[in-house]
């Protein structure tokens, strides 16, 4: 009897197929509760990590790889995403070391995923929002040049992840606020769509899957996003007109949907409401395949582990039977 690996579960979803073993795939783009779950935090989170010689860092990264695998095995996650939250060259290099350790230890059981930081235009994460808005109108050619630079950097990063043995990459750039997109659709089609489409094409040509992350109400730009042909869209944040019911009905046959248990509720609870939202996500997303259960963003430090485990229990109880439900 052939055993289906967690990696194969996720790849089936990315291909818009039903889960081969009948269980909805599940993992998180970030799971930051490893200390509570396993008794130790990843070494790379330590303030002293970056002061260590490369040889020592690399040895500790092998320990981190083993811990990542222990978390994935314990929680039944199908994928492991590596993202240190920093964009300088040294940290990206350390990510590649960790990925190679994962590939060595995991024996292809899990989908290994790298992260392209803001390789297309995104909502500024610091001061400069007003300057950006002005630039879009007063110097659009300069914005396009910045877009080309971001694209070039993103493609180079993707090649490094491909060479390290990743199965896929996500592009981590937020295009939307809770009230809607950063820019009007006509501007999105000029400053983001062509560059995102080229990035997706380049990544797929490397043999990688492409997963697109953005927060906020994405409905006004969904056609633009889908036209770029990403394999998956994450996080389907339940704000504005964006909800899983809408997404599944309109786009579920064109892109894998990843989400969307509300992160705010995962922080505040109660557990009964978390279970209710998880059940709804499974019931809506699972039929027909092409769905991965996740939070609507990440299981970050502020989410009580007990709240995540309430979501996890619901997935374990309902994640198989919902696949065969009729829409």
Features:
seven-stranded parallel β-sheet; 327 residues; alpha/beta; TIM Barrel; 13 helices
Write a short abstract of this structure:
The protein has helices at residues 6-14, 34-38, 54-75, 89-106, 129-138, 140-164, 185-191, 193-205, 222-227, 244-251, 263-268, 271-285, 305-318, and strands spanning 79-81, 111-117, 168-172, 176-177, 180-181, 209-213, 232-234, 256-261, 291-295.
Q: Count all strands and give the number.
A: 9
Helicity, as a percent range: 40-55%
Structural class: alpha/beta
Assembly state: single chain
The string of secondary-structure elements, in order, is HHHEHEHHEEEHHEHEHEHHEH
Count of separate structural domains: 1
What is the radius of gyration?
A: 19 Å
Given as residue ranges, the uncertain stretches (5+ residues, pLDDT < 50) are none
CATH architecture: Alpha-Beta Barrel
């Amino acid at each position: 009897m052939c055993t289906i690996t967690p990696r194969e579960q996720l790849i089936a979803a990315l291909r818009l197929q039903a889960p081969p073993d009948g269980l909805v795939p599940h993992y998180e783009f970030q799971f930051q509760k490893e200390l509570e779950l396993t008794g130790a935090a990843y070494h790379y989170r330590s303030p002293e990590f970056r002061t260590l010689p490369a040889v020592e860092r690399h040895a500790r990264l092998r320990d981190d790889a083993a811990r990542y695998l222990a978390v994935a095995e314990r929680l039944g996650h199908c994928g492991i995403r590596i993202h240190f939250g920093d964009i300088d060259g040294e940290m990206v290099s350390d990510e590649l070391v960790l990925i190679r350790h994962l590939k060595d230890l995991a024996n292809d059981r899990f989908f290994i995923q790298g992260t392209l930081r803001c390789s297309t235009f995104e909502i500024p994460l610091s001061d400069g929002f007003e300057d950006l808005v002005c630039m879009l109108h007063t110097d659009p050619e300069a914005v396009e040049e910045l877009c080309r630079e971001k694209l070039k950097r993103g493609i180079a990063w993707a090649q490094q992840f491909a060479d390290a043995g990743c199965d896929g990459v996500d592009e981590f750039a937020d295009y939307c606020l809770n009230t809607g997109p950063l820019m009007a659709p006509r501007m999105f089609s000029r400053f983001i769509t062509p560059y995102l489409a080229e990035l997706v094409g380049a990544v797929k040509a490397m043999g990688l899957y492409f997963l697109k992350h953005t927060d906020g109400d994405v409905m006004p730009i969904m056609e633009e996003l889908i036209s770029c042909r990403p394999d998956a869209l994450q996080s389907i944040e339940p704000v504005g007109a964006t909800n899983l019911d809408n997404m599944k009905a309109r786009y579920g046959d064109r892109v894998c949907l990843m989400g969307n248990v509300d992160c705010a509720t995962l922080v505040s609870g109660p557990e009964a409401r978390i279970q209710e939202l998880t059940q709804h996500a499974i019931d809506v997303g699972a039929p027909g395949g092409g769905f991965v259960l996740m939070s609507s963003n990440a299981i970050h430090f502020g989410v009580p582990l007990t709240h995540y485990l309430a979501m996890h229990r619901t997935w374990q109880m309902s994640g198989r039977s919902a696949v065969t439900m009729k829409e």
